[in-house]
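Input.
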Amino acid sequence: MGIIEKIKEIEAEMARTQKNKATEYHLGQLKAKIAKLRTQLLEPPKGASGGGEGFEVSKYGHGRVALIGFPSVGKSTLLTMLTGTHSEAASYEFTTLTCIPGIIHYNDTKIQLLDLPGIIEGASEGKGRGRQVIAVAKSSDLVLMVLDASKSEGHRQILTKELEAVGLRLNKTPPQIYFKKKKTGGISFNSTLPLTHVDEKLCYQILHEYKIHNAEVLFREDATVDDLIDVIEGNRKYIKCVYVYNKIDVIGIDDVDRLARQPNSIVISCNLKLNLDRLLARMWEEMGLVRIYTKPQGQQPDFADPCVLSAVCLIVSYTLTIHACLYWEGAKYT
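Output.
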């Protein structure tokens, strides 16, 4: 039995199992088994040479944004409008067969935009070269999930499920769980607050499923079983995602208003060039880029070529600078 068949068998068993207090330990073990199998599914086959055609392109600019979506939702047209790079667009599906990069010049910065081939249901299992597409998305700073506003809302759930199956966590923060393997000492389980989803017994069973018998686990939030498994796996990528609903010119104003009010969503029309400026502003906001203009001593500030940092890097640099200054001041008076 292959890995995909094993995953489907475990999923069928979870669907048959009633969720209650008596079965939560069994369900937790099944979730851990699925996570292990999906990690094996992403590993290259043994004996593979590593050759073959891939989608990866060299990073360029101050940030990277990936366009992900089903075929024929307007990804190539959006890339052309935002970057000026030609990406073939047609009325049939799978027009784009490889990764096409473009550069967005916005607020004195350069943002790399990647037009990826359309993915289909089952992409996490390798259908339609979905693994290569999702692997490129993992290297991005932001994901734009392009959706057809005239199609079913189920497309969003399908794409989110496919991305989560390969370790991408959209619009989530890493769980506040401290986990460290040890050589001896058994399992140490602690929490700083009452837990409602995980107890010590369930934690032990999941760790034993991973053949971990010596570790230190500390919960700093009321996390779930899935959060614990993500921390143990250690290969999850937490990334921001904006849901871009294209083709709003073919639906009613009430539907446009409903879609626009959904969390992390924005509505556009590539055909009529509607709301593209707002999309760029939203991308800039979600990426958290900060421009720093340097001023040489005795000269005017250089507003032509800023130093671009992420907000997180800026906070870390500022904190380190304060600590260095305090240390220097302390040393001066001792």
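The chain has ten helices and twelve strands.
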